[in-house]
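Troubleshooting: if your tokenizer reports a length mismatch, compare your output against this known-good record of 147 residues.
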Amino acid sequence: MRLTANTASGLLFVAVGAFALWYGWRYPVGTAARIGAGYFPKLVSGLLIFIGILVFLREWWGEREALVAGRIRPAVAILSGVFGFGLLLERAGFIPAALLLVFAARLADDDFDLKEVLMLSAVLIVGLGAIFWYGLGLPFSLLPFGI
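Known-good structure output:
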């Protein structure tokens, strides 16, 4: 079997889903009336595994796309942004972490426009900050000095 885009993507989805399922197994699912901490991770992990299997099976449904090495840059840029966001959220605050995430994700595209990235960053930071920080009251600071 050749390594194609569908095969690689499907295996990646299954691997990430299986790891998340294994890691989150210790959290209780809870009941229907009172959902526990493990409910959402197990649900998302199961969906990731299911989607990975479907993508992997597309190999036999006739849609074949060669795996091109030049397409690694978008994956690296987006994954770097997500990891950077996770590392910076507690240390530098939400706004710098979100800026890094948007910049890294936009670097995945060939036509990077700084004005567009700044506008997108502003809209996402205000919108998501309003939802998660103000609306839901999640305990994270917006800036490094504790606001």
